[in-house]
Amino acid sequence: PAHECVFPQVGVTAQKTMRLLPASGRKATQKVVVVGDQDGVVTCFGIKKGEAVPVFKTLPGKKIARLELGGALNTPQEKIFVATGSEVRGFTKRGKQFLTFETNLTESIKAMYVHISGADLFLCASYIYNHYCDCKDQHYYLSGDKINDVLCLPVDKVNCITPVLACQDRVLRVLQGSDLLCEVEVPGPATVLALNNGNGGDSGEEVVYGTSDGKLGLIQITGAKAIPKWEIGNEKKRGGILCIDNFDILGDGVKELLVGRDDGVLEIYNFESADDPVLRYDHALSESIASIQGGCVGKDGYDEILASTYSGWLTGLTTEPVHREGGSGEELKLSQEMQSKISSLRSELEHLQMKVHQEREKYQQSSQSSTAVLSVPAFSVNDKFTLNKDDASYSLILEVQTAIDNVLVQSDVPVDLLDVDKNSAVVSFSSCDSEPNSNFLLATYRCQANTTRLELKVRSIEGQYGTLQAYVTPRIQPKTCQVHQYQIKPLSLHQRTHSIDQDRPMNTLMLKGQFSFAEIHSWVVFCLPEVPEKTPAGESVTFYFQNTFLGTQLESTYRKGEGCFRSDNISTISILKDVLSKEATKRKINLNISYDVNEESVRHTLKLIHPKLEYQQLLAKKVHLIDALRELQVHEGNVDFLLPKYRSILEEADQLLEEYKRQPAHLERLYGMITDLFIDKFKFKGTNVKSRVPLLLEILDGCDQDGLIAFFEAA
Asked: Which parts of the sequence belong to the BBS7 GAE domain (predicted)?
């Protein structure tokens, strides 16, 4: 793709709500764009001579959550299906509505897939999957966690209906009828599914998935067996994947993989060998990419990648050359068509500026009248609060449909704000009283003009739980603000995992009492992230977790009247004991609590912490030496006389300072964890050792692992 071109803007769009209709007419190659927005409007347009030509536009209604195409087998897929609320509507390519199907779902549709025939509809609400054939209910399935996307393997290739659900608990669920055929573990919460090569590959069994933590993979589903083919990590720490398409944009006869991410990065992967895809091209947009498609749209003979972003912008990356070159030595000149396009855009911009000025004056006059009633302008905020496994921090991403003026962040629990490279906002901290108001953080991010997306990073402390609030104020008049709340949970640094190492020394906490399955599940939801709010089906459930900061683990198994929690970190057990007791007391439920402490687990946890502690202490020492060494360098002129280890500190000074700045209070957090481990070990024995903490801190400064273990065992 050579350059970017912009199409008309629609309203705020959800994931997978833009498609390209096949070209109509025998010789036509240009495709028509159809997009659904959160105002409930379906807009369809083509491009003629560089101008958007409307085909049809529907009236506003409920938010459109998905838009898919369908049609009879071996015919162009040009019937448009939209999911809005609990209803599915169908439109022809000319805009005539041919279907209104009110489903029996009590919730809004979150994901939809239309089989090629158009007769089979696969719909998902939060936890519920339904298959309809000719609008008649065929199959139903209740998932163990939230469903993010759905598709069906091509029936003409696999000879049976095989739906695949992408679920929040890092599992792809393959169904047969209303039954679970198999579960496929994937490396992150799958947010989007696509058939490989657009048709499931030669076998029709290949499914590409993208995850919310930015990973890509291909799975081959053969009957009740699933084989992982390839997997691409997210080494560049890019955003989560929202959309995937297959299209031959490079013109080499092999379809490339087009990927859109929630940080605005668009990627093209191609298959140089028959195995893993290779990133060939990427391009950064300023907003999250909700939908991506490949095809010929803007100009006949030139293919494009079309992306729709969160606030409704449609952007095309075209293969058409930017300039047409004259003879040698001649200046590159813009084509006549390009010049007329620029002048038309200029006049359109002037007209809009005049209109805005007139409306603003009209508003000022009406707001000053005695009968004026001010209406608060509504604006849409797309937010995401997720735990990053790599650095044990939470990412808070705020995306607004209009430019952000400022964001105020407040927390009633201690949290560290970490640096984000992509963040250009200016941050200022206000002093706050933690005692009377439980106010531990007050920070304001002032955004530069035209910033619509802001990313923040925070790190919490396990055992301290409460609420983080973001007050979002956009650049609109009159000034208005939205408050968004995010829960910091007691075991906030734990992340769901598929399995744990059963050979580690484990501590056990047992609960018994007159509580229901739903009650103990609600307590676990309160304590731990990534647990589905809905009470699981069945009589009991087991969840596995890993602490992203330390690498310790937790196994949680519970049923009506009984709960068992096992961890190799005694502090995790201590936090659970305190919080679960408090929650049971609130509901006036008596708990019988017993525990089994494994002494070996403390030594094991210290050995996990020590390499991190040693690294951070060494980093702190190096950073403290940098100023003195630089002064010496300026004074002496050269540093050849220094020992190699000091010369290397000077050479790596910028990277060391950058790393230290990115991880403020990292060493403090490690000291805090070791102190908690020491206190918790003896708390279970009924001994208060807080008076010995200063001695422990002295030993920590010495960074001697054997001395530390000896102190824990001798105390």
From this structure: 377-486
Say if residue 423 is in the same domain as residue 570. Answer: no
Counted domains in the chain: 4
In this predicted model, what pLDDT tens digit does every residue of 586-643 receive, in sequence order? 989 999 999 999 989 999 999 999 888 888 888 888 888 888 877 877 777 777 777 7
Six-digit token pair at 95? 């805009």
Task: Kindly report whether the peptide bond that precedes residue 505 is cis, defined as omega within 30 degrees of 0.
Answer: no
- The C-alpha atoms of residue 594 and residue 611 are separated, in whole angstroms, by 33
Sign of the four-CA dihedral 123, 128, 129, 133: negative
Sheet arrangement for strand 256-261:
241-247, 256-261, 265-270, 278-284
* Domain extent for 463: 381-479
Measure the CA–CA gap between 204 and 152, rounded to whole angstroms: 10
Q: What is the pLDDT of residue 9?
A: 83
Residue 326 — very low, low, confident or very high, per pLDDT cuts 50/70/90? Answer: very low
Check: CB of residue 144 under 8 Å from CB of residue 537: yes
Q: How far is 288 from 240, CA to CA, in rounded Å?
A: 9
**Residues of 514-528 as b/e, b for ≥16 C-beta within 10 angstroms?**
ebebebbbbbbbbbb
Which are the contacts of 477, defined by CB distance < 8 A and separation ≥ 6? 360, 363, 377
Kindly report the CATH number assigned to the domain that includes residue 186.
2.130.10.10
- Put simply, whether the predicted model's pTM sits higher than 0.85 gets the answer yes
Read off the tokens for 714.
């001798």
Please state, in angstroms and rounded to a whole number, the distance separating the CA atoms of residues 470 and 484.
5
Q: Which residue has the higher pLDDT, 421 or 464?
A: 464
Extended strands (E) in 560-610:
562-567, 591-596
Q: Copy the structure tokens of residue 464.
A: 């301290």
Number of Cβ atoms within 10 Å of the Cβ of 248 = 13
Residues 156-162: contacts with CB under 8 Å, at least 24 apart: 156/73, 156/116, 156/204, 157/199, 157/200, 157/203, 157/204, 157/205, 158/200, 158/203, 158/204, 158/205, 161/115, 161/120, 161/131, 162/221
How high is the pLDDT of residue 325? 46
Residues 193, 207: one domain? Answer: yes
Rounded CA gap, 94 and 92, in Å? 5
User: Whose CA is closest to 111, among 146, 78, 74?
Assistant: 146
Mind listing the pLDDT tens digit for each residue in 193-219? 999 999 898 899 999 999 999 999 999
Please indicate, yes or no, if residue 234 is contained in any of the structural domains: yes
**500/531 same-domain check:** yes
d(CA 135, CA 124): 15
